[in-house]
Amino acid sequence: MSKKYKSVEEIISDLPAIREVCFSLRETLLANLVMLGEIPAPTFKEQARVDFLMQRFSECGLTNTSSDECGNGLGIFPGKNRKRNILLLAHADTVFSERRDHTVSVHADKICGPGIADNSLGLAVLATLPTILEKLGVELDSGLVLMGAARSLGRGDLEGTRFFLENNKLPLTAGICVEGVKLGRLSYASAGMLRGEVTCRVPEEYDWIRRGTTGAILVMNEVINRILGIALPRKPQTSIVLGSVEAGEGFNIIPTEATLRFEVRSEDSDIVERISGELEDIMEDVIAQTGSEVTLDIVARREVAGLKIGHPLVKETREIMSALDLHPHITPSISELSALIANDVPAITLGITDGERLHEQRETIKIDPIFTGLTQLIAVLLAMDGGFCDESE
Question: What are the residues whose beta carbons fall under 8 Å from the beta carbon of 277, sequence distance 6 or more?
């Protein structure tokens, strides 16, 4: 099926053949997925998983593989046109500690295991892609850069992706961020975001009676109540997610420290900035009211930016998805896509399959939709390579 496509319509006509090739490599993909999924990779500790990914790249015949100072794993297909390069990346880290049991279980129609959807499947797709392209007989005009991105989640704050983009010497014409779930996801813009951690500490010699409280939990409760009282607009869409609260050691031990992790998201960067100011005011008020130590640590920020819905990359991707009977779920992203957009690289995020129990021990993905997701990814890659997703100058 090696050919030079003259239009997206020609690519769409080959979708059944592309899916057939993807399905024929089912066992290779699932083997890569299981082996990657069983390697723990909490943020800042992804090296073993990245090393395995690069080993897979080498076994596929990629001669240009390396890791950089930030721990990213890279594999590069040189293209015919050195002025064009496409970046495909998937974050290598997961939210799960290395102390967690990372056993992956494979069933007839699904696969279960911590981080299997987010984002072991994304990495497995990168590990298998060279074999798929070889079997398709595809020779790209553009260079193809495959990257397992380190230090993406939480306090990692996309450090690996940012480092690569700041130090990369290759001209990047487009990018695709690969996420395990959800099939039909299409992100082409980044949302405004602020991610932070509130810590409340009370000294052991605290005057409980005078202050009228009984430990850090009640101080944190006051912080939470104040945060929940922040006025949020319906339009532009805005939310505050209280992600986790940690405090206490037992039934009868007064806790002296409590921690809250939260995230603010909005379609308007000005609203995020306004909420940031209100959060600082809340901390000062609670300090004055309780006499405890309350600190606000901002660990990540994002600005609203991205492509327009009429951009050729978005339009052609939607056309390909429609041909596969996929209904695009358009949602802004705060992940690697935002870093590409900030560096003026036209990019999108795509999901590969359907899943459930995300970020739980029994995180689960469905097997059969994976091959539709792979077909979608390869078709978009071919459209990018053909220049059909470029903006007219």
Answer: none
Letter string b/e over residues 152-189, b meaning 16 or more CB atoms within 10 A of that residue's CB: bbbebbbbbbbbbbeebeeebbbbbbbbbbbbbbbbbb
Q: For 329-355, write each residue's pLDDT tens digit.
A: 999 999 999 999 999 999 999 999 999
87 in Cβ contact with 345 (< 8 Å): yes
Nearest to 127, CA basis, from 392, 338, 374:
374
How would DSSP label each residue in 357-375?
STTSTT-EEESTHHHHHHH
374 and 24 in contact (C-beta within 8 Å)? no
d(CA 183, CA 173): 24
Output the CA–CA distances (angstroms, integers) from residue 100 to 42, 178, 359, in the order listed.
Answer: 10, 24, 12
pLDDT of residue 230: 97
pLDDT band of residue 206 (cuts 50, 70, 90) is low
Q: Are the C-beta atoms of 190 and 337 separated by less than 8 Å?
A: yes
pLDDT of 63 reads 80
- Torsion over CA of 145, 149, 152 and 157, rounded to 10 degrees? -60
CA-nearest of 31, 192, 186, 23 to 120 is 31
DSSP 3-state of 161: helix
| Residue 207 confidence class, pLDDT cut points 50, 70, 90 | low
Residue 240 DSSP SS3 = strand
- Angstrom distances, CA of residue 249 to CA of 172, 198, 227, 315: 51, 19, 25, 54
Tokens of 67: 């890791």
* Length of the chain measured in residues: 393
CA 116 to chain centre: 13
Nearest to 349 by CA among 323, 325, 387, 321: 321
Identity of the amino acid at 214: T
User: What mean pLDDT do residues 306-320 have?
Assistant: 97
CATH of 192-302, one of 1.25.40.10, 3.30.450.40, 3.40.50.800, 3.30.70.360: 3.30.70.360
DSSP string covering 49-101:
HHHHHHHHHHHTT-SEEEE-TT--EEEEE--SEEEEEEEEEEE--BSS-TTS-
State which CATH number among 3.40.630.30, 3.30.365.10, 3.40.630.10, 3.40.50.1010 fits the domain covering 8-190+304-385.
3.40.630.10
